[in-house]
Task: inverse folding
């Protein structure tokens, strides 16, 4: 796939994600309370280029708990696993 096609597909995912999950709704899922700052930071790092273990380590989150969080986010449709390493990819990032 060409780089342009890849960029266009990512753009379409983000546009559709904003339609399906408005910012306030998505924020309520990812970080339901003000103490969930690490969750929000971890969600924003789910850009499809980083492994779950790397994201968890950089945010100071237990890897096992974060794996379960990723599974829950997948069930809710706000995150997917992409590429040969199945790295997590969010539908769009949230401002902190």
Result:
């Amino acid at each position: 796939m060409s780089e342009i096609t890849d960029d266009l597909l990512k753009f379409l995912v983000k546009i559709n994600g904003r339609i399906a999950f408005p910012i306030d709704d998505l924020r309520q899922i990812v970080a339901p309370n003000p103490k969930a700052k690490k969750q929000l930071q971890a969600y924003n790092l789910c850009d499809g280029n980083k492994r779950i273990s790397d994201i968890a380590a950089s945010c100071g989150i237990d890897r096992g708990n974060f794996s379960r969080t990723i599974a829950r986010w997948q069930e809710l449709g706000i995150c997917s696993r992409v590429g040969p390493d199945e790295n997590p990819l969010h539908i769009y990032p949230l401002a902190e």
In short: The mean pLDDT is 92. The domain at 3-90 is CATH 1.10.10 (Arc Repressor Mutant, subunit A).
